[in-house]
Design goal:
single chain, 298 residues, alpha/beta, Rossmann fold, UDP-galactose 4-epimerase, domain 1, 2 domains, 7-stranded parallel beta sheet, 12 helices, 12 strands, 38% helix, NAD(P)-dependent_oxidoreduct, NAD(P)-bd_dom_sf
């Protein structure tokens, strides 16, 4: 399959590209910089220059492909409205390019806000509806194209897709521990995060692209609910610093923007996902990765 991948040089995207190539697929990767383009070409990827604001490049990449994996996101935490706008417009552009083809469009999403007091499941619809909602309501927007001949699939990623080389949320929490000399959690540390190793996430993306029916919600979740206190303890042990609590209202001041997520309960299950695409996570767990030193140099 000729697969067009946005975010191909990113953390999850790089692993996904390797997974797709290893399975015999041809990959076309969107690249916005010379460095990204060179890195992709070195791995055997055909490069399409552009970014999420280059809608013509997105249309061309989707139209020329047999499947699309959309992983790119601006992640502009200082201006989330811009990230939401760009996500909605890019998903709409990709979906419109695939109307009537039956080709797959697998797009990245998240598990935040799915449920209260229990782990979110694949049966939970995304509460993000409309342009002003998180991610611009792109999951629901994409699923609105299913009846128009697009095999839209949502891959909802756990709040941490971890591994050696990750510079995402756990790296930011680790950086806060290094700055303050303490590894902290919010409140009593009972809030929970789901997690997945990057290798398992990449394999799920490939399986979803190849197998998932239109309108499927997949959860890239290997571990359902890790208490934030245990995450903080593992970071503290890895860095050799004490572990403490901060008040939930002080979490953003202590951690930066990531504090608002670390203080949230983001547990999710993947029971349905494992059955629908025969996915069994095999990578190390989050605490194992932290204790092994994956984030000491983050």
């Amino acid at each position: 399959m000729r697969v067009f991948v946005t975010g191909a040089s990113g953390w999850i995207g790089s692993a996904t590209v390797d997974e797709l190539l290893g399975a015999g697929h041809e990959v076309v990767g969107l690249a916005r910089s010379d460095a990204s383009a060179a890195a992709l070409e070195a791995r055997g990827v055909t490069v399409l220059r552009g970014d999420l604001d280059d809608l013509e490049a997105l249309r061309r990449g989707a139209a020329d492909a047999e499947g699309v994996v959309h992983l790119a996101n601006k992640h502009d935490w200082a201006n989330p409205a811009e990230s939401n706008r760009a996500e909605r417009v890019s998903v709409e552009t990709l979906a419109e390019a695939l109307v009537g083809t039956g080709k797959p469009l697998l797009m990245a999403s998240g598990v935040a806000g799915l449920a209260a007091g229990r782990p979110g499941t694949e049966a939970d619809p995304s509460p993000a509806i409309g342009a002003d909602s998180p991610r611009g309501g792109a999951e629901n927007l994409a699923f609105g194209h299913v009846d128009r001949g697009v095999r839209a699939v949502s891959a909802r990623f756990a709040p941490t897709t971890h591994g050696d080389g990750d510079h995402g949320f756990i790296a930011l929490i680790t950086d806060a521990a290094r700055r303050h000399g303490v590894s902290a959690y919010a409140g009593d540390g009972s809030t929970r995060w789901s997690a997945v190793h990057v290798s398992d996430a990449a394999r799920l993306v490939r399986l979803g692209l190849e197998q998932a029916p239109a309108g499927t919600r997949l959860h890239a979740v290997a571990e359902e609910a890790i208490p934030s206190r245990e995450i903080a303890q593992a970071i503290g042990d890895a860095l050799g610093v004490p572990v403490t609590s901060v008040a939930p209202e002080d979490a953003v001041e202590h951690f930066g923007f990531i504090g608002m997520f670390f203080a949230m309960d983001l547990a999710a299950s993947s029971d349905h996902t494992r059955k629908v695409v025969d996915w069994t996570p095999t990578g190390p767990g989050l605490l194992e990765d932290i204790k092994a030193g994956a984030y000491r140099g983050a």
